[in-house]
Amino acid sequence: MNPAVLAISVLASIAAALVFAALYAIFAKPLTPGGKKRQQEVINGFQIARGILLGWVLVGSLVGFAWIALGFNPSDDWPKPVAALIAVSAFVLIALMIQRWAKYFAGWIGYGVLNGLLMASTGHILNNPAILVRRSYALEMTGLVIVSVLASLRFTEGYELHVAEKLALLTWLTAFTVAANAERFGIPALTVGTLALVFAWWLHRFKPRRRRHVPRHERKLESDLGPLKHRSGTP
To answer: 230: Cβ–Cβ under 8 A, 6 or more apart, which residues?
Structure first.
C-alpha cells in the first residue's frame, strides 16, 4: 500500500473515532452508573485528545511559520508578514492557555529524550538519514531536555503557576522555536530556556514555606473552612 494512502487512512480513522466519541459524549444518555462512568471516561479522553491535537497545531504553527518569517524558508504561499502574524498569534494563544498545558509539559518534552538518544546513536535526523546530526549536539540537547523535565515535574493537575514559572515556560518555548529553526543557535537558546526553568524551580524550592503555592482545590477548601474556624474559635 502507498505510504501516503496508509497515513491518510490512519488519520481518517483517528478523526472518525474522535467524532464518534464527541457525539457519544454529547448525545448519549446512559441509564446505569457504569454507563455514566464510561461516558465520563470518554469525555475525558476526548478532551485530552483535543488538547493534544490543538497543542500540535499551535506549536507546529509557531515553529513552522517562525521558520518562514525569519527567512530560513522563503515561501511564495506565505509572505513573511503573514507568517510572522500567524506565529505570533500561535504564541499568544499558547501563552493564554499556559495553565492548561503546563501539567503535560514534562511528559511532552520528555519524549524528546528518546528522540535525542536515537539521533545520537544514528547520527542523523529521525526518519531522514540524509540530514546528519552531530552526536555531541544530540547528546547536549538531550541533557538539557532532561534537566528541563526534572525542573518541571511539579507542574501537575491542580498546581497553579506563579508569574516566574509562566515566564520560564514561555522562555523555554521560545528557545525551542529558535533551536528548531537554527541549529547553530540550538545549544545556547535551549540553555537559556533550561536555565529559566531551573531558576523558577529555585524560586519555588527556596522561598518561605508559608508562601509556597498550594493546589487550587486545597486553597479553596481552606478559604471555605476559614469562616467556620473563626466562628468556632478554632485557631
So the answer is: none
Which grid coordinates belong to 33?
Answer: 452508573
Rg, Å, the chain Cα set: 22
**Mean pLDDT, the chain, whole residue set:** 75
What pTM does this model have? 0.68
Strand partners, 124: 132
Interatomic CA distance for residues 54 and 145, integer angstroms: 22
Output b/e per residue, 122-137; b: 16+ Cβ within 10 A: eeeeeeeeeeebeeeb
Distances (CA, A) of 201 to 41, 150, 152, 224: 33, 9, 8, 29
Query: What is the CB neighbour count within 10 angstroms for residue 68?
Result: 21
Closest CA to 109 of 47, 44, 50, 193: 193
How many Cβ atoms from other residues are within 10 Å of residue 172's Cβ? Answer: 26
- CA 41 and chain centroid, separation: 22
Residue 129: strand, helix, or coil? strand
Q: What is the mean pLDDT of residues 147-175?
A: 91
Nearest to 94 by CA among 78, 108, 77, 113: 108
Query: What DSSP designation does 182 have?
Result: -
The tens digit of pLDDT for each residue in 183-213 reads: 788 889 999 999 999 999 999 888 755 444 5
